[in-house]
Each structure stands twice: as structure tokens, then as C-alpha cells.
Automatic annotation (TrEMBL):
PROSITE patterns found in the cross-reference section: TAT
Protein name: N,N-dimethylformamidase beta subunit family domain-containing protein
Record's compositionally biased regions (Low complexity): 34-49
Domain N,N-dimethylformamidase beta subunit-like C-terminal: 119-477
Region (Disordered): 31-81
Amino acid sequence: MNDTPGGDLGRRRFLYAAGAAAAAAIGTAGCGASGRAAPETGPSSASPSPGGPSPAAGPSPAVAARPSPTPERLLPGDTDWRIRRYGPDDAVEGYCDRASVLPGEPVGLCVSTTADRFRVTAYRMGWYGGALARRVWRSAWISGRRQRPGDLVATTRTVHADWRRSLTVPTDGWPEGVYLLRLDADRGHQRYVPLVVRSASGAGKTVLVHATGTWQAYNRWGGHSLYFGGDGRYESRSLAVSFDRPYDRTGMEKFLVHERAVVALAERLGLPLAYTTSGDIDAGGGVLKDAAAVFFLGHDEYWTPGMRARATDARDAGVNLAFLGANTCYRRIRLERGGRLVVCYKTDVARDPMYGRRPALATADYRSGPAADPESSLTGVFYDGYPVDAPYVVTRPGHWIFAGTGVRRGEQFPHLVGVEYDRVVPAVPTPRPLEIISHSPVTCAGRPSFADSAYYTMPGGAGVFASGTMRWAEALMARTRDLPRAHGIDVRTRRFVTKATANLLRAFAEGPAGRLQPPPRDNVRATYG
């Protein structure tokens, strides 16, 4: 991605509304990484005001459902998980004091609302017979308060909310997975707060990685993100962004659009799964050790050097890797303040304190100096640009990933390539043997190019797949209730991508694909000369 002023920076503008702002300052911060704990506001037993949302069937307030002997994916779901009414930006919003917890660990939740009361419902996202979520917990009604606006750190233009903690959410009995905590104000307004209940071990499992660093990079709450400042300009963007603030109006666009459908499909297939975040991989803990496969789900742009090193080590040890989006591992970041601060100076990298001291930690793009290390050495493909909208063109219909799809050589799937794309570039570090299985002509800002899906293997047995398009995961829910327009992607394309992704999930779950699946037939020279 090009962030230079006047370049393709404008590609993100349509995604964002203005950052939300809370009003009326109160008390001392208690939900941030500063560690200044504040007293909790205990659940209120008061009833909601007339006209507020009515309770749904399920566990009693503040009591989690007991574990069931039935496999999680076969439990009945709850279609009421979707937000129905956002309302004003400051109607109700919140954030957790941690992006992930182990099962049974409590998490602090900070909430600001203009309503008198609110409550919290935890939905575990998955398959659940097509309902896509299951309700596992609900709080009692809690007295609401408006918390203060965020503080702006001038040196890095970082917005911190640092609100008082509103309640502690227990996770006793919650299965590993990704959750949306839905905030319901008694006036009917709603928001999501994400939480991953992570796996301690991924041994023998397919690990799903939630791109929390990327979620936060695009978050414009308080008027600032790693792309825009309060005046809407790139030059006034944040150089570091904090997890100690809510997500902006879209709530969880990065998860809902680019990740959720992959989770649902993986759970539908009944595979042994583990769940983690980009920050957890950076922090260590060994969740990738002895995994069968690791899936980076849809838009995973921002990586720490530690995350990249651990993913590379896993691959070299025989763990399969799948990159289902584009623009993966493009930005080098650091996580500071216990993982609560995402640092990325981008084109101002010379101002990064690490620039002269530890160049490998300076937060430029991976392909840029200092310490250039293009993403292609891991992903096999190289980010090439934005914006595009083009057909996906199959060139190796006999590849095992396409088994059962019925595709023919040259068959096209309109609109599947976009809005960002990757390609194979022989001049940059690229693992071999590598097979290009789709080769799609594109025109990006008047420049002709190609988008490629590619597959390579390693001596240790790992297979590595990259889709080469940002819309791969989106296509899994094209023309459904949650993505009815889908950039023009049709049902035929959804079925093709679903089958190919299911093939990939099943094959990678079996173990080292380089030993168990047909080897790649290197065609880089034949394709690019």
C-alpha cells in the first residue's frame, strides 16, 4: 500500500466516518495499560426503561451457560447477534482492557454511554448451523455514564481513552474462539467490542490468527488512525495508536468482513481449531509450535518482527501457512505498553527512535529501509497496488486446491480480484518451487499488471498458499444477508471460493502438505520469463 500524500491514500477514506467522541470527563482511568485500577461499577438489578431492548432467552443475567458435551459447532445458535441500531456516535461504546484472554480469565470492560443503563451480551462467533453465533453470557443491567473524551499525546498524535472500568466480564466456561461483546443501551443503541478467548496451544490444530494489530491501525476513534489525523490528512496521522479506546462506528469491520466467514467455514468443517491474535504471536507462548496449519484470515497487513520470525520458524518446521488476503505482512510495527500500543512511523521512519539504534525494529514497510526484508520471502507473493476490480482467472485448474470445483483453464470469476492485490515478482526474494495457480490481468491506476494466487512448499514439508486478493474471505459470504452487494461478486464465485477454501483447510489440517499433497509444478519462468 502506498501512503505517500497524493498517492492511493484516498482508498481508505470511504471506509470511515468521523471518529467518535465521548463527552463529560469523569474520574480516574482504570481500563488502560497504565495499570491505574479504578473501582468497578457493579451490575444493577434495575429493570430497563420502557421501550428498551427486551431480554432474549438464554442464561440468567451474569451467569454463563454450563459447558455442553455436544461439540461446540453443533450447539444451537442465536441469530439475534447482529446490531440493529447504531444511533449517535456517543450513544454507547466501549473497549476491553485486553485484546485476548485465556479461558476463565476475567477481562475489564470500559463503557461510555448517554443512556441511563446498558447491558453486555457475549456472542461466540462460529457456524452454529448457519446462525453464525451463540450467546454464552449476559450481564445484568448496569448504570450508564458518559466518560471523558480521549486524550491526545502530541508527540505521536495518539488518542487514549483511559476510561474507568465499568464491569469485569468473566469467561468461566467460555470455549476458545472469537467473541463479540454487544453493548445494548436501554434506548436501543448497540455496539460491538471484540474479544478473543485464545488457545494456549495449537499443537495438531489449525490456528486461526485474528489481525488485531491491523484492526487497530485502521481504527479512527477520536479522529486519528495510522492513516488520518483529526483534519483528515495523512500528514497529521498517528504515529502510534492505542488499544485503550473503542473502535469507530463500524465497530468490527475488519473482523466482520475479512475474518468472520473463514471462522464459520473452518468450524462448519469440524476441524480441530485454535485461536490467537497477532499480538499473542508476538508475545510468544508457543501457540504455533507443532500446529498443523496457520491461517492468516483476510487483511493482516501489520506485523511485528517477532510475529514474522515465529511464523517463519513454524513454516520451516513443517507447519502449513495460508494467507487468504492481500497486502499481508506489509507494515513493520512494534507493540509497546504491554502490547496496548501499535507503533508505525511509515514514511516518517527517520523519526522513529529505533531508526539509528536498532534498524530491524524501525517501523517502515518491510520492503523499505532500513533493514529491508520484503514480505515475499514468507508469503511467496508481493503486494502490488490499489485499487483494482478484476476477474480472477484460473490457470492451473488441475491443482488440488481447485479439486471438485469443476473449473477450466482460463475460467473467470468477476470482481474476485480487488481491492488490493499481490503478484509473484521474480526479482524479489521468492521461495521455490512455486506454482502460480491463477494469473489475473489487472489495471491499477492506469498501469497493467497481474494478480496471482500461488502455492509453494518447503524442505521441511510445509505448504504455503497465498490468494493474492483482498476479496477472498469476503467472497465466502457474497450475496448473503451480511454482504448482499459484495462488490458484484456472485453466488457462483462464492461457491467456487468456498470449495477451494474447504479443500485448503482440510488438506492443511492433515499435516505437512509438501509431503501429503501433490508437489507444486514451478511455473514462474513460464509465466513471467
